[in-house]
Amino acid sequence: MNRKKLIIDLIVEDLRRFQVMISIREFKIENFYYHNYGMLVIILGIMDEEEKLDDYDFGGVYREHLYEVKYMPKTYFGDHLRPLAKKCYKALKKRYVEVKNRPNPRNRNLIE
């Protein structure tokens, strides 16, 4: 399995999980978190195995796509979520390029 397909599959699973979390919120469970970024951390590790990517840099992009599932129908397999997962993957890749290309403040004196 290639990296891209694996990441998209993981995003689909996280989207499905988030739909379930949203649907059970009516039960008012205490200490309930709709989302943690555990899956995003895994995805970032797959995107770049050599460098530890900070989920803070990618969280907004990921969350933006995650919240779109609120308006989508729920199905058992979640195949209808695949286009959203692909869209999310493209946005994460775009953000990855932005993060990799920004100047590193720790290396500021090397640049100047």
Outline the structure in words.
The termini are far apart. Helix content is 60%, strand content 0%. It is mainly α. The protein is built from 5 helices and no strands. The protein is globular.
Structural category is: mainly alpha
N-to-C SSE string, H for helix and E for strand = HHHHH
| Unreliable spans | 107-112
Q: How big is the Rg?
A: 16 Å
- Strand proportion, as a percent range, falls in under 5%
Total number of beta strands: 0
Determine the number of helices (DSSP H or I, runs of at least 4 residues): 5
Termini, distance in Å? Answer: 43 Å
Biggest sheet overview: none
Mean pLDDT, rounded to whole units? 83
| Spatial shape | globular
- Percent in helix: 55-70%
Task: Itemize the secondary structure elements and their pairings.
Blueprint: H1 3-23, H2 38-47, H3 55-66, H4 82-101, H5 108-111
Helix pairs in contact: 1-2, 1-4, 3-4
Looking at this protein, list some descriptive labels.
mainly alpha; globular; 112 residues; 5 helices
Give a brief rundown of this model.
This protein has helices at 3-23, 38-47, 55-66, 82-101, 108-111. It has 112 residues and is mostly helical. It is globular and about 45 Å long.
